[in-house]
Amino acid sequence: MFSSISIKTVVLSLVLVIFVHDVSPISETTVTACAVGGGIACSALTGYGIHLLARHNGCSNTSTWLLTGLGSAAAGFAAGALIHNIMSKYTPTGRFAYAQGVIASLHANKLIARAGDNQDAVVARIISIYGTSWPLVAARESLMRNSINLGSASTELDLAYNEAIQAPDNYPFIIQGYHGLRASIPAIYNNIELLLQIITKHEKYDLQVGLFEKHMAQMRKQQHEKTLQSDKLSHDSWENHKERDYKRKENDKDRHLVAGRPTAKLNFTMGGR
After folding, report:
1. Chain centre distance of CA 17
2. Are 154 and 99 a contacting pair, CB within 8 Å?
3. Residue whose C-alpha is closest to residue 99's, from 157, 146, 162
4. Is-contact 4 43, C-beta < 8 A?
5. What is the DSSP string of 212-223?
6. Model-level pTM?
7. 185 within 8 A of 156, measured Cβ to Cβ
8. 90-135 pLDDT, tens per residue?
9. Comparing C-alpha atoms, which of 85, 84, 92, 98 is closest to residue 170?
10. What pLDDT digit, counting tens, does each position of 19-56 carry?
11. What is the CB neighbour count within 10 angstroms for residue 195?
């Protein structure tokens, strides 16, 4: 019963969070209220469950209330912190902070920031950063991820601004910082595109792609062989377990036979039949 109530409560909370997120911006006040409310609800349910369990197992009254208090407090704090952490990401402040962090990290990226250097300098920098047998491929994969992250940051930045202008007095820092961040995004995209062109047009790019694909094929083969070996070990372990269980049962039969017929011959060994 306790588990059923807890699951229903969690599901209902998630549905409410999604509904609020789709209908209107989530304010920091709402986040705090939900975190506190969710923490209290989880604390109460957990405390109730622990109390019943402790009483059922015959714990003393002092131990029961001690376990109830500690368990409910820990569960309430953890649940409240989790709710606050999740919901905060969907507030204007959370969205803006995420976008600001991504854009700042890309501005500080040594490769992206100096994409305008000559091709030899760019390639040398790539090799120094991605010291593998296929640095151009590794750099391209990293830049593609950066491009995706920048797209997400751009979306979150616009959402934060559109939500902030509905309550400008509450989010002056977003309104003031939005245009500068928004204006910096095209330049980062251009630098990423320039780097991708340098990489894919380099004379060693196709060779490194071949090496990388060969490496990945070898890794997949090794993983497959490892899986087969693991499955075989599991099967052998199960077969050994069945054999040991069979010997144990047969030895038990022999012991029962001897116990019932003192003149019977005992036919077992220390290791089984």
Report:
1. 20
2. yes
3. 157
4. no
5. HHHHHHHHHHHH
6. 0.67
7. no
8. 899 999 999 999 999 999 999 999 999 999 999 999 999 998 889 9
9. 92
10. 444 445 677 777 888 878 887 888 888 888 888 887 88
11. 23
